[in-house]
Design goal:
The chain is an all-alpha fold. Helices cover about 60% and strands about 0% of the residues. It contains eleven helices and two strands; from the N terminus they run H-H-H-H-H-H-H-H-H-H-H-E-E. It has a two-stranded antiparallel ribbon. Helix 4 crosses helix 5, helix 5 crosses helix 10 and helix 9 packs across helix 11. The longest helix is centred in the last third of the chain and has 24 residues. The radius of gyration is 19 Å and the shape is elongated. The N terminus and C terminus are likely disordered.
């Protein structure tokens, strides 16, 4: 069976199969790197900025390689495992992350070249909602933010986020619900406060099942969508 699997194109082999092969042939782990490096790097960049993302992403795969023989082969998809590693590394920089969101909340839309606001808020409402959204992300607890962003930006399901963080699914669901509630309240306040509303009727925002919802449009391809209404 191993010989047959080895002959298959990499895209037809599960992550678990590749990781198992890497136990005997360490070079096979490069296929996992190729599949997921840009996703992991992008997630780290969204949360910490590009200056830290390179090191965090590289360390994520070094740790994964060192731990590959302990990987649970029953889990064919390695994304929750990898996102769990990167989330733990990001946790070392939570103060930096919070400062980043506070800075983004104060910056004019044209004052940042990373496209971060457009990834989270729809283009129509980005100018009005980017600041309140970033401020709200800075204020929620680290545990709540971790679950919310694994779902909204990494595109994991709540169960996969729970697996990544090593918490029971019920705990992840509770944290996600509370995080969404706080983000929704912050954006609703922004939509009804003079000088911060959009005037387009799309400011009533919420973080929904697949991501942070903040108006109209679709966020950068991580599973975060913006629909402009509760679902």
């Amino acid at each position: 069976m191993a010989a047959v699997t080895q002959a298959l194109p990499t895209e037809e082999v599960s992550d678990a199969a590749i990781i198992e092969q890497s136990w005997r042939d360490p070079e096979r782990f490069a296929a996992v790197f190729d599949r997921y490096y840009f996703q992991i790097h992008g997630f780290a960049a969204q949360r910490l900025g590009p200056s830290l993302a390179d090191d965090v992403a590289a360390e994520t795969f070094l740790i994964a390689f060192d731990r590959r023989e302990r990987y649970d082969l029953a889990r064919e998809d390695a994304r929750p495992w990898l996102y769990g590693i990167v989330a733990n590394l990001i946790a070392r920089h939570h103060r930096t992350e919070a400062r980043r969101y506070r800075a983004l909340s104060r910056a004019p839309l044209g004052g940042t070249d990373e496209g971060h606001a457009e990834q989270v808020a729809g283009r129509v409402d980005a100018e009005a909602l980017r600041g309140p959204l970033m401020a709200a992300l800075a204020k929620i607890t680290d545990a709540h933010r971790d679950v919310l962003l694994l779902v909204a930006w990494a595109g994991l399901s709540c169960e996969e986020a729970a697996e990544a963080l090593g918490v029971p699914p019920a705990t992840a669901r509770t944290r996600l619900h509370r995080a969404r509630k706080k983000i929704r309240a912050a954006l609703d306040r922004a939509a009804t406060t003079p000088g911060t509303g959009t005037g387009t009727g799309t400011g009533n925002a919420t973080a929904t099942g697949t991501g942070a919802t903040t108006g109209t449009g679709t966020a950068h391809g991580t599973g975060a969508t913006t629909t402009g209404k509760d679902r």
